[in-house]
Amino acid sequence: MLKKVFLVLLIILAAAGCAQKEQSSNMEEIKPAEKVELLISAAASLTDSLEEIQTAYEKEHNQIKLSFNFGASGTLQQQIEQGAPVDLFLSAGKKQMTALVEKQLIDNNQQMNLLTNELVAVVPADTNIAVSKIEDITKSEVKKIAVGQPETVPVGSYTKDSLTFYKLWDTIQTKTVFAKDVKQVLNYVETGNTEVGFVYKTDALTSQKVKVAFSPDSKSYKPIEYPVGIVKATKHVKEAEEFYKFLQSKAAQDIFIKYGFSLPDK
């Protein structure tokens, strides 16, 4: 009798063990997949538009987390050259993308010109100084002019080209305050630390503390192009390619246009 009871207990315990093992196995099967994090280095002038794109993209792709590193395109280029773990690069200048292609860090077939922009001069919204044309920046009332560092900040390079075209670059050197990126140029003007600053049209549109004083002739500087490319060293090729394609979609383009960017001529 005891043997039969013992045998029944063994059968019950074995069945319970199998059920628990099966339940554990099923739980492993339904365990959600870990999110893939895409690291994207992008020009500072893309901050607002890309943050809105991030919200839209992650809503439709809940297995993807987008992480952005915003800064001056030249600095971001150097970081990629030094081995920073970047999946995609969005530059505010063709020069930086070309350099990475030439160094075989980005495949030429996986990069393209995504957007265009314009150069404008901004002044504080409440300024009393009359600045309506480029020659006005030489006025004695204009004490300081904010300019992106030409060597590393594309907007600074475009500014230098434009002011050189107008033969004003050397003239304003004693007034020039160099900034690390376009957002810092904008901040200098917003806070009244400079009377004038040269930024992209898109940045001017984001601030109520500044107003556009004038727009230099587009012939005075190289076309402002925003190329995007997939970094060869990415460990998430499939996900990087999907986001690269999404940035070219109408959904993304509508957001870029909302923030003042233009699309390149096809």
From TrEMBL:
Any GO MF annotation of the entry: tungstate binding
Alphabetical GO biological process terms: molybdate ion transport
InterPro entries on file: ModA, ModA/WtpA, YvgL-like_PBP2
Binding positions (molybdate): 45, 73, 182, 200
Keywords: Metal-binding, Molybdenum, Signal
Signal peptide: 1-19
SUPFAM superfamilies linked to this entry: Periplasmic binding protein-like II
Keyword Metal-binding part of the UniProt annotation: yes
Family of the protein in this entry: Belongs to the bacterial solute-binding protein ModA family.
PANTHER family referenced in this protein's UniProt entry, alphabetically: MOLYBDATE-BINDING PERIPLASMIC PROTEIN (PTHR30632), SULFATE-BINDING PROTEIN (PTHR30632:SF0)
Protein name, UniProt field: Molybdate transport system substrate-binding protein
